[in-house]
Amino acid sequence: MASPAQESTLIGLCDGAVDPKRHQSSFLTNKVGGQPDWQPVLRRQFPRCARCGAPLAHVVQVYCPLEASPYHRNLHLFACSGADCSGRSESWKALRSQCLESEVEPSKVAPAQEASLSASDWCDSADDWGAEEGGDGWGGVKPNRRVEDEPPEDPAHSDMDVGSRLQVLRLGEPLMDTSLLRSFFISVLDESDLLGEGYDLDHAQELLREYESREGVTVGELNSKEGSGGEEKYEKTRAKHGDAVFSRFMKNISLCPQQILRYCRGGKPLFISEPPSNMAQVVSACASCGGSRTFELQLMPALVSLLQRTDGSAQLEFGTVLVYTCAQSCWKEGSASAVEEVCLVQTDPDQQLFK
């Protein structure tokens, strides 16, 4: 059963690039782009766009086990970069995968790595960085499978003929490397730490000014006065487009506009525009157990400029992508396929604001 909702909001920041010649990642790694790292007991999956049928690019991988749960747990987000599909919810997929800790050999589960930023994590055992090949970053033990590894062969299919194998490859072959999105590690911090003890407010204001100058927008000033207890003070400015929802969105991210991801399972999302009036239909019941879904994470506008293909071609377009998952995090033991959850894509009202 899922643990109680997480109270704090965790913020993901883009860290160093994942260099396949120097680093290796596993399902414990939080990252942007690249190939997805599936849990060792699961089949590799190659989702396609529900609108145009094209293979989807892997956008984000998050390792997010629940408190007091015996399961490893991941969320993988995929999207179609086709021009006609950009910004459409049906062109995104969120896949949740789980496996019992007992199903993975403990000696081959990589320990957490020290991130380059002082940060907390989604959980104590998640890995921000991965490890350099040949190093001791995994406690002297390499992870049990690499990104490109196939899952163990099912004995029931060991006699599959060559023609059948070629047919499977033709239908489910992943994207070529030139179509993959460039990969970056994600470092994590608790949003409450931004104004906690030792946080440099002057540095936060400097980052905010740099962001405003770079993007040509005004999102307000931060001010901490004596006796305020470190609370955030926001001098409101009138949004150019008069959108109150967008103004609240900008206010909430003003302390850390470079955030690329927000994680708060069971919390409240930040809408960039008015939510759809039919939210009950958009966020439908879990297709596996019939239970309700809850908000878990969202991708932020600062991620858009990072989502470049390895061949340098077009990026994805969105304002924010909200992900809702089964409130009970239901899972059928022994399952080898991930569960599809719900993505809600909202576009940037100004279209060019975060580019």
Automatic annotation (TrEMBL):
Q: Which domain of life is it from?
A: Eukaryota
Composition bias, Basic and acidic residues? 145-161
According to the UniProt record, where is the region Disordered?
Answer: 133-161
Set out the biological process GO terms recorded for this chain's protein: apoptotic process
| InterPro entries, alphabetized | PDCD2-like_regulator (IPR052815), PDCD2_C (IPR007320)
Cellular component (GO) terms are: cytoplasm
Boundaries of each Programmed cell death protein 2 C-terminal domain copy? Answer: 243-346
Protein name in the entry: Programmed cell death protein 2-like isoform X2
Report which gene this protein is encoded by: pdcd2l
